Amino acid sequence: MSTTTETTTTYAPAAEALGMVLAPGARPPRPSAWSASVTFGWRAMLKIKHVPEQLFDVTAFPLMMTLMFTYLFGGALAGSPTEYLQFLLPGIMVTSVVMITMYTGVEVNKDIEKGVFDRFRTLPIWRPSTMVGYLLGDLLRYTIASVVILAVGLLLGFRPAGGVTGAAGGILLLLAFSFAFSWLWTMFGLLMRSEKSVMGVSMLVLMPLTFLSNVYVDPSTMPGWLQVFVNASPITHLVTAVRSTMAGTPDAGEITWVLVSSVVLIAVFGTLTMRLYNRK
Amino acid sequence: MLAIETSGLVKTFGDTRAVDGLDLKVPTGAVYGVLGPNGAGKTTAVRMLATLLKPDAGQATVFGHDVVREADAVRGRVSLTGQYASVDEEMTGEENLILLARLLGHRKPAARERAAQLLEAFGLAEAGGRQVKTYSGGMRRRIDIAASILNTPDLLFLDEPTTGLDPRSRNNVWDIVRIVVAHGTTVLLTTQYLEEADRLASRIAVIDHGKVIAEGTPGELKSSVGAGSVHVRLRDPATRPDAERVLAEALNAPVYLESDPVALTARVTGSGNEAEQASRALHRLAEAGIVVDDFSLGQPSLDEVFLALTDHRATEEAAA
Question: Which residues form the ABC transmembrane type-2 domain (chain A) (predicted)?
Fold first, then answer.
């Protein structure tokens, strides 16, 4: 397939037409930080519109994870897949969404080498808005993934005791943490030399983090030394918070832990990301 | 006021001093050409002036604003068209312009209107709905420049805007630059082509190894290196030594032997009509029985300008 097409009519610059667009009208005031971020968020949406295949990772991947683990472990661990699903679903939702946060880093890394980044960086706008825009687009992707998993869960027999409010509350908590956690990947996206190395680092962090947690089994069945690690894992805290919220018995302590750690993640990795962005 | 003023600007990457004490004074309201070969430090200098890179030493101001301490004030008045298209290839031309208009503070309806006007003025109205990656080189350059003048900047950086373009697209870019300047925007143009700088710029700085080695109007620069040169192709390579001697005597100028064993180039440096001098030189070759297959009278190439400028500097230094 050819990607380059010449225009059939030949163009010649016309002084009048160009003069019209060059007439210096009053320059509008700078956009607010929020408005600039939302505009970059719109850019992220447009990219999804032009390359819808990229939504594969937020639909097919979570679907596969849910089905695979429900039927693989269900019978052995909880007597039946349906029973296991009541325990597993909040955890598998956390795993899937946290796993797809790494694509943020990959996207940033792909973009940063392109000329368009130079243009963004010469605009008189709030500096972090470019990065916030990515994350706003990603929030949409995380929401799609969460809703897909919840829908599949409901079809397979997941019945959250917290009802609609509980399920929605759990998802919101997950989105808040994922937004904050993504700043880790924007940092790696700016730091690493290639997409592949960003992927490599992400897997190295995410695989142990999601498996060595309370997503699949109750930590009390694990050896003592492993329990120490598992109980300290942020994923365990997040899963407990989401699970309890969906079950209608929100664990205030764990929810606070999740929200405070989100703020800390943004403060630390947001700052590091912006430092790298300004230096690039 | 000056559009750009730099003094002793330095940027190093590892052991390489990409920009090594650059001094520039760019007046407002005209095209200022920065001429130099690949690796001379042109792009690095532009990136520092456009607030994309921090200088390691020295000072640079744009309209009186320091590019480091007052970067935001600088960003409000400049725009950049980089060597590679500074637009998002996955988005359509229209989406790119709307995105930028929004980022520059236009409200949605105004942003759409502005995008439509620009697409029309740059002959891209039909292609506006297509992704930029499907555009030809010339169209890409145009959407890029359209994006750069969206807010009619006071200073526009054009970094090698015609590298890789076909002659028609190159002429279009030149015309656009002239119109943009006529409307009051100052343009800093970097180029490797003497012809381009000559056609567009009212002043030129020649840079090499990160330093300015000559500065002046195109006329001043050309007269310092000889207005033109005569290129000769001989039938028999064995006659080249004789041809070299004859040409050197006739034109009273150094003769360059090119890598092609039948080709030579001599600068026409003397005062008076160049064509007349060149034809006299060719006549002498004929008298000497040297058969010339082809000849042309052209502008000095960038290589020749460089050789002349560096020769000139070397003699000056030796005399001092």
Answer: 53-280
Asked whether the beta carbons of A219 and A227 are under 8 A apart, the reply is yes
Instruction: Count the Cβ atoms, other than its own, within 10 Å of residue A49.
Output: 11
- pTM of the shown model: 0.83
Q: Do B183 and A121 touch (CB under 8 A)?
A: no
Give the pLDDT confidence of A90-112 residue by residue, as tens digits.
Answer: 999 999 999 999 988 888 888 88
Provide, as residue numbers in chain B, all residues whose Cβ is less than 8 Å from the Cβ of A6: 136
Among B residues 10-69, those touching chain A with beta carbons less than 8 Å apart? 47, 50-52, 54
Domain ranges within chain A, ordered by starting residue: 32-279
Chain B residue with minimum CA distance to A18: B121
Task: Using a CB–CB cutoff of 8 Å, tell me whether B129 touches chain A.
Answer: no
> Tens digit of pLDDT for each residue in B92-121?
999 999 999 999 999 999 999 999 999 999
8 A C-beta contact, residue B187 and residue B32: yes
Domains of chain B with CATH codes: 2-219 (3.40.50.300), 227-299 (3.30.70.600)
Distance separating alpha carbons of residues B222 and B206, to the nearest angstrom: 12
CA–CA separation, A94 and A216 (whole Å): 11
CB A18 within 8 A of CB B180: yes
Task: State the smallest CA–CA distance between residue A193 and chain B in angstroms.
Answer: 17
Closest CA to A104 of A213, A210, A174, A201: A201
